[in-house]
């Protein structure tokens, strides 16, 4: 019987083992090009995600609903449907339809509808003793409402479509705007042919009256108060331009439309000519040239092209009024000094000449350093080319440290102003 003996497996040579090991390693190690093809797309995807996240965050930061900084933290633009002014008035004189008078959602935020009789009673039948201001298009009376609130009651004289349009614009805008740097609209009356606006009462009247009156009122506006008013009004325009969507262009910004409360804090009023800007780049819109001579930006006056930079120019003119005490147009001045901007602009960057420009009613009580900085801001705002003018946010941020330093140093003001600067003769 044959027996078979299993032969042991042949011994493998060391070189064979080495070759098989290298073969297995090549099976599990990817080439460098393959690694790059996998890694690069992953990196690109992560970069795109990061860029998208950054853009989203920036848009959220710039959103008008998320107002940034402390300058306008109490301001907001309340979006709601456009107020309907076309409905026939009911027996109470409301310009909205319905019985009883159906008011827009704005009324829940404090904008009331008054009858003409109620406002007659508040002003003692619009007596002259309650007259606080008179202009071409309106007369303003001091009044006490039924609940005891002291108010400024503005009786409009404008007739026709333009007057009605101005009335609608103010009610529509101010019922949706909430900002401590804008004069509050308390209510309105559209009783038959009467058009009346009711505002919060501003005890110290207009900035224009204090700067340009022949009495001693201008003495109340010292250097610190003037800069505080400049900052308050700059914050108002910043809110309108950069914290509402689309931007709101005031179009008639001037010293007459800056009112002062009992503490000489400034608030902007009169939105009868205001325009809602375009939501396109630079917000350029074409419109009729309306406003006040001396405050109109050159490009707007010549072409009717209106942007937020038109308001910036007007703000620069007001800043010059605060610095010099002069009105924008003054024909009884010597030749070359009739127009404030053209006279002041070449002097604003000259340190010696800018001191000579200062309002003599300040009696030299100002900081030369602050004066130079404020003059530089004014010079930028009244540039002929709109693109060279700053945003109102830039103006606000430039004024904040100046005003803050004045407030912080108020306790030592006598030392701060001990070295007087000689005013112009």
User: For the terminal residues, how far apart are their CA atoms?
Assistant: 143 Å
Question: How much is the average pLDDT?
Answer: 80
Number of domains: 2
Largest sheet: 6 strands, mixed
Number of strands: 14
Secondary-structure arrangement, i.e. CATH architecture of the largest domain: Orthogonal Bundle
Provide the gyration radius in Å: 33 Å
Shape: globular
Oligomer state of the chains in this structure: single chain
Strand content: 5-15%
- Topology as a string of helices (H) and strands (E): HHEEHEEEHEEEHHEEEEEHEHHHHHH
Q: What is the percent of helical residues?
A: 25-40%
CATH topology of the largest domain: Transferase(Phosphotransferase), domain 1
Q: Structural class of the secondary structure composition?
A: alpha+beta
CATH evolutionary superfamily of the largest domain? Transferase(Phosphotransferase) domain 1
Which CATH class of the largest domain is shown?
A: Mainly Alpha
Tally of individual helices: 13
**Low-pLDDT windows of residues:** 2-6, 61-69, 79-108, 411-425
Short structural summary:
This protein has 425 residues and is an alpha+beta fold.
Characterise this structure.
With 425 residues, this protein is of the alpha+beta class. It has two domains: 91-200, Phosphorylase Kinase, domain 1; 207-416, Orthogonal Bundle (Transferase(Phosphotransferase), domain 1), CATH 1.10.510.10. Helices cover 39% and strands 11% of the residues. The chain is built from 13 helices and 14 strands. The chain has helices spanning 14-28, 32-62, 116-122, 160-174, 207-212, 223-242, 298-303, 308-324, 340-344, 351-357, 368-381, 392-408, 413-416; strands at residues 76-77, 112-113, 131-134, 138-144, 150-156, 177-178, 185-189, 196-200, 248-249, 258-260, 266-268, 275-276, 285-286, 305-306. The protein has a six-stranded mixed beta sheet with strand order 2-7-8-5-4-3, sandwiched between helices. A two-stranded antiparallel sheet has the order 1-6. A two-stranded antiparallel ribbon has the order 9-12. β10 (258-260) and β11 form a beta hairpin. α8 (308-324) packs antiparallel against α11 (368-381) and α11 (368-381) runs antiparallel to α12 (392-408). The longest helix is centred in the N-terminal third of the chain and has 31 residues, at 32-62. The radius of gyration is 33 Å and the shape is globular. The model is unreliable at 2-6, 61-69, 79-108 and 411-425 (pLDDT under 50).
